[in-house]
Design goal:
31 strands, mainly beta, Methylamine Dehydrogenase, Chain H, 5-stranded antiparallel beta sheet, 369 residues
């Protein structure tokens, strides 16, 4: 299904809002990217915030009263509005690697915005469905996955008691269901294999993969009922999956052997790898120790403070989900969710330390912001 919608306020350009300062704890240069008195956040921690060339920095802003997609044009130093609608699923956004488009869910449809003329094309209509589970975490966020080639887009769709994993061919618009099960959250294509998708199953049995042909496989089974497995992510350069064993540290699953080795014993919260797969950047919580760089096989290095409120009191308690879902107050824009830039010279994160969630970049290795 391909349906194109004409322009409105999309494509409007605004003056940049950035200001630079020095983090007093680390001495590193930090740039506040957004400044409007409203909620802002970049995509979720395993979703790229930049195009591959690093010329665009994508984020969501509530400055119009509704969440909309924007990007910072890093060449012009301007902020560009991408969407102008009242039904955006704000955590569904996924920029294309080539920077020519951005994908997102709105209402019960799958859409792509062309960043050359800001027209919108509907790739799929899912009909009368809920789309997402209730809540603020996991599958309720509605994150989606785009393959490294940009050819395939995977979207979990909640329809009654069933979650359907729908695969869309972004070139033809053809779509099909590759999996049905109880819950499907946080999908991620393997960066080295367009045919393999990581996703989160139930909170008590999280780490699964499915192929584009629908071959479903459990990758890791909890060692005991109090083990808290969360925030899984692919490690580039090898078919391996890192996850947080909260709050004891990070572990790495070798897909060939199924073994889960310890990467470190640092209490990382959300941890995202760089493009080389040689280090992670993470935030921390309970206690908040700031953002850190975690080299593979090395010691944690303090990066900077985030001072985000990081909502989610359940993270301070033992694993709470053995007896079913738990209602939590955990607005995701209050979490830093740090992510490397494509060249590995900056880290983008979100913080609501000023009273409104804003976007920030911190420099690494003397890189220019």
């Amino acid at each position: 299904m391909l349906q194109t919608v004409a322009n409105s306020m999309r494509g409007a350009r605004f003056a940049g809002e950035s200001r630079a300062f020095t983090d007093p704890a680390s001495g590193r240069r930090v740039r506040q990217v957004t400044g409007h008195a409203s909620i802002h956040h970049h995509p979720f921690f395993f979703v790229p915030a930049y195009d591959r060339a690093g010329t665009k920095l994508f984020f969501v802003s509530h400055r119009t009263g509704r969440p909309q997609i924007y990007f910072e044009d890093r060449t012009a130093g301007e902020i560009v509005q991408v969407t102008d609608r009242d039904d955006l699923a704000e955590w569904s956004i996924y920029p294309s690697p080539d920077g020519r488009s951005v994908y997102y869910v709105a209402d019960t449809g799958a859409w792509r915005a062309d960043l050359s003329d800001f027209s919108e094309t509907q790739l799929a209509d899912f009909g009368a469905v809920e789309m997402r589970e209730k809540g603020m975490v996991g599958a309720a966020m509605g994150t989606t996955a785009l393959s490294a080639s940009g050819r395939w887009w995977a979207i979990p769709v909640k329809a009654g008691k069933v979650s359907r994993f729908i695969l869309i061919d972004t070139e033809t618009g053809a779509s099909r269901v590759i999996l049905e099960r109880d819950t499907i959250g946080h999908p991620q294509f393997c960066p080295d294999d367009d045919s393999l998708i990581l996703y989160a199953g139930p909170l008590t049995d999280r780490v699964w993969t499915v192929t584009r042909d629908g071959v479903n496989k459990r990758v890791y089974e909890r060692e005991d009922r109090m083990q808290w497995v969360t925030h899984e992510v692919w490690l580039p350069g090898r078919k391996a999956i890192a996850f947080i064993d909260w709050p004891r540290g990070m572990r790495l699953i070798d897909m060939a052997t199924g073994k889960a080795e310890w990467l470190n014993r640092f209490p990382a919260w959300h941890a995202a790898p760089d493009a080389s797969g040689t280090r992670f950047v993470c935030d921390t919580n309970f206690p908040d120790r700031g953002l850190h760089i975690l080299p593979l096989g090395g010691e944690a290095e303090f990066l900077c403070a985030s001072e985000a409120t990081s909502e989610g009191a359940h993270w301070a308690q033992p694993f709470p989900y053995n007896d079913g879902p738990v209602a939590v107050e955990a607005r995701q824009h209050t979490h830093p969710h740090p992510r490397f830039s494509p060249d590995g010279r900056r880290v983008v994160f979100t913080s609501d330390k000023t009273g409104f969630a804003q976007l920030y970049e911190v420099e690494l290795d003397g890189g220019a912001a």
